[in-house]
Write a structure and sequence with these properties.
The complex is a heterodimer of chains A (341) and B (466). Chain A has 341 residues and is mainly α. Chain A is built from 14 helices and 4 strands.
Chain lengths: 341, 466
């Protein structure tokens, strides 16, 4: 039996990107919610709740990018130049918000105010840019002879901007869910209000992006059995689990908020993200550079994929093990005394 | 391909990677230093080690964060700006970089959280393990990145696929390519020297003000120990690395020494003004025959000069020649600082010798300058190739517009200038406060339940203070 290495690697990278979106999603969301916290003490608690884990969360993005480079160089080599500007903007946003964790702590009056703004602005910019990357990716990349052949602003469309806004709203929802789970008192109550607003915005924008995806490219629509006029029910039916999962997530968020649950809104937000993520996968699979390179065309050499698969089989369980341990170590409600040095 | 996009992409890559290397070359050494401090504290229970640990931990947190965010850039820039290179080289070096993420980045990032915030969550033993994991992670990271870079400097055990991309033949030969061992040791020693120079400068600065500060006295002695051992060792390792360059990258060696004519008994140019346009040195101060002796171990050794390479295959000589001299000059100064310091420690006159303390302060940034100069020699010296002898840098660039690259280059310049100046300011502020000030904030050892102090509050949270 021979393994379908490109397919396995597509799965590994899909999981890495999903973990990135969920994990860095809630901590970027906290940055997006930062301006609405109203007091320095609340912002300190918000930041303390993610300070021990943000670096590990962001490492999944390096695995996503590095993994694409290593496993699908054909796709990496067309996707990255095609999405040049939003990727660079994302990196700059991540730089500003990443250094803010330490700089905000070290800054005096003006410095602290500046790095508070940089954390919020950098997080929002990174989220919007990631959404534009996503939208630009789904709407397709112009490729000729295995290289990107489009223009600098091909990615910039109403579709990608909507995706950007939707991802930022979704991250804010994840962030609010995290805060409901991990904080108490005033901030906890505030996070419930944020979850309602972000939840409504996420659902509306996700619905808009979902419908627009059916019209953005016929091949994306074909993934759902849609030909421009009507649906092929035989193809659509098995895929209805995806929107159903989204409805379940949405319901859990609403139910959790109504029942004053501490963890259900976060769980619901995760399910909502999972449904959006799977929905996108249905739209562009098996392309890894829509809609010109499939995972098999873009894959690296078999001996490279096999070597890395051996490494992943051993290392990924270890990584997940100590990641879970670190989260478990910092479990529980975060109070005002969680600061450090 | 757009010629402007190429030069702009080269500038951007040179800038972002030179900026990035500043932080790893400091944090690789600092992580090991912290692990040693914590081990010494656990073994001796001397509070000075704990104060030093808490002090340098804060500096580490700032520097490491800057290293992380500027490092993420590198993992995407290969695609945004060097997509043609990525497509060709990834099947060989892709797994090396993937292993760096899997074996090092996650380890460092996860245990960093425990290191910084876990004081009250884990016991001292587990906390030490977290510090050690971060230290090991930084070294593993250096291993993979130097492995990938060494293969690009001297590619072995590969073949070309029909689509033009490369394939590895024997992975062990790729990972441990011929120039890798010496270059890895060279980089780790460089990182240890860089860190010890900063620790030495900060400690000397404090001792110039308060000659009796116990923590700074200990730290300065530890730094001197590192100069005295690592700096001479670095000279030997560097010389070994130079022999590898002579064997594998003759054009780079000729540029380093500004040799233009092929011949035996090459003169050693102490200083010179090499100029590619005239294919010679405008002027030079030389010692006859010594050039062959230094580079090949014999005055009779025949060494190839740059004129025997086609003009299109010659690296920029001026930059490489001078970067090499800056690196070696600083290295020799480090050896001097180590010997002088060791002598003063032996005579018991360290704190009293103010010129020495001032020299230590002045040498504080020397490691960073030497590291960047060394990388300039390595990377500019291998031009015009990105994979030596296999792929030219000009063939590796992405099909992106020059306008987009100028915009991103300017944005990187602005943002990096901002975070660099602020980061340096905050670190210098911390260093000026000194380790004794930090000791007041350090969490005390866990008190035994039922002891007199068990009910007393823990250390006050500095953030809670107005």
């Amino acid at each position: 039996m021979t393994l379908d290495l490109p397919l396995i690697w597509a799965g590994i990278i899909a999981v890495a990107v999903l973990l990135y979106v969920l994990l860095d999603g809630f901590d970027l969301g906290i940055g997006i919610l930062f301006p609405f916290a109203g007091s320095r003490e609340r912002r300190d608690v918000m930041m303390d709740s993610i300070a021990p884990v943000w670096d590990g969360n962001e490492t999944w993005l390096v695995l996503g990018g590095g993994g694409l480079f290593a496993a699908f160089p054909g796709a990496y080599a067309v996707v990255a130049p095609a999405l040049y500007l939003p990727l660079i903007v994302m990196l700059l946003g991540l730089i500003l918000r990443g250094v803010a964790f330490e700089f905000r702590l070290r800054g005096r009056k003006r410095g602290k105010a500046f790095w508070t703004a940089a954390f919020a602005g950098g997080s929002l910019i990174a989220a919007l840019a990631q959404g534009c990357v996503l939208g630009g990716f789904i709407q397709g990349i112009k490729v000729k002879d295995g290289a990107f052949a489009g223009g600098t602003f091909d990615w910039l469309t109403p579709y990608s901007l909507t995706a950007g806004a939707g991802l930022a709203a979704g991250y804010a929802l994840l962030g609010a869910g995290w805060l409901i789970w991990r904080t108490e008192d005033e901030l906890h109550a505030l996070a419930r209000r944020w979850a309602i607003i972000a939840g409504v915005a996420t659902v509306l924008l996700l619905a808009a992006v979902s419908v627009a995806t059916l019209f953005v490219d016929p091949r994306a629509a074909a993934g759902w059995g849609f030909d421009g006029q009507g649906f092929d029910m035989a193809r659509l039916a098995p895929r209805m689990g995806v929107p159903a999962l989204g409805a379940l997530g949405m319901g859990l968020v609403a139910f959790g908020l109504a029942r004053r649950s501490h963890h259900l809104p976060f769980v619901g937000a995760i399910l909502l993200f999972l449904s959006g993520y799977l929905g996108l996968a249905v739209s562009f699979f098996p392309f890894v550079a829509p809609y010109s390179l499939t995972i098999w065309q873009a894959a690296s050499a078999d001996n490279a994929l096999a070597l890395m698969l051996g490494g992943v089989a051993i290392l990924l369980p270890v990584i997940l093990g100590y990641t879970v341990w670190v989260y478990w170590l910092f479990r529980g409600k975060v109070g005002a005394d969680a600061g450090y040095h | 391909m757009d010629a402007d996009a190429l030069i702009l992409s080269r500038l951007q890559f040179a800038f972002t990677i030179a900026f990035h290397i500043i932080f790893p070359s400091f944090t690789i050494g600092l992580a090991s230093f912290l692990a040693v401090l914590e081990a010494l504290w656990l073994a001796t229970r001397n509070a000075a080690f704990q104060a030093l640990y808490m002090f340098w931990l804060k500096v580490f947190a700032i520097s490491f964060g800057m290293g992380v965010v500027t490092g993420v850039v590198m993992s995407y820039e290969l695609g945004t700006n060097w997509s043609a290179f990525s497509r060709v080289a990834s099947p060989v070096i892709g797994p090396l970089l993937a292993f760096e993420v899997l074996t090092a980045f996650f380890l460092e990032a996860s245990f960093l959280g425990v290191m910084l915030f876990g004081w009250r969550k884990v016991g001292p033993g587990l906390h030490f393990i977290a510090t050690a994991m971060v230290a090991v992670g930084t070294l593993i990271s250096a291993f993979w990145i130097i492995s990938a870079n060494s293969w690009m400097q001297y590619p072995v055990s590969f073949e070309r696929a029909p689509d033009g991309s490369l394939r590895a033949v024997d992975w062990m030969a790729v990972i441990f390519s011929p120039s890798f061992p010496a270059r890895f040791v060279h980089m780790v020693l460089a990182a240890y020297l860089t860190t010890s120079l900063v620790v030495g400068a900060a400690s000397a600065w404090r001792l110039l003000r308060r000659a009796d500060e116990a923590e700074s006295r200990i730290a300065l002695r530890m730094a001197i120990g590192m100069f005295a051992i690592a700096a001479p060792l670095q000279l030997l390792v560097g010389d070994h690395s130079g022999r590898d360059v002579l064997r594998h990258q003759p054009a780079k060696l000729a540029a380093i020494e500004a040799f233009w004519e092929t011949g035996s008994g090459q003169a050693f140019h102490v200083v010179a003004w090499p100029d590619r346009r005239i294919a010679g040195n405008r002027w030079e101060v030389s010692i006859p025959k010594i050039g062959s002796l230094i580079t090949a171990g014999s005055v009779e050794a025949r060494i190839k000069g740059l004129r025997d390479f086609p003009p299109a295959d010659r690296p920029p000589v001026f930059l490489v020649f001078w970067a090499f001299r800056v690196m070696v000059g600083l290295g020799v100064a480090m050896i001097g600082l180590g010997l002088w310091g060791a002598w003063l420690v032996w005579r018991g006159r360290l704190e009293a010798t103010r010129p020495y303390l001032m020299a230590c302060v002045a040498m504080g940034p020397a490691g960073f300058v030497a590291v960047i100069a060394g990388w300039v020699v390595a990377e500019v010296g291998r031009q015009p190739y990105v994979i030596y002898g296999v792929m030219r840098t000009s063939e590796g660039v992405s099909p992106v517009a020059a306008g987009a690259v100028s915009a991103s280059l300017i944005a990187f310049l602005v943002v990096y200038a901002l975070i660099f100046s602020v980061g340096v300011l905050y670190i210098l502020r911390l260093l000026a406060e000194g380790p004794a000030a930090g000791a007041r904030e350090a969490p005390p050892e866990r008190r035994a339940p039922g002891s007199a102090l068990a009910a007393a509050p823990d250390d006050p949270d500095p953030e809670a203070a107005p």
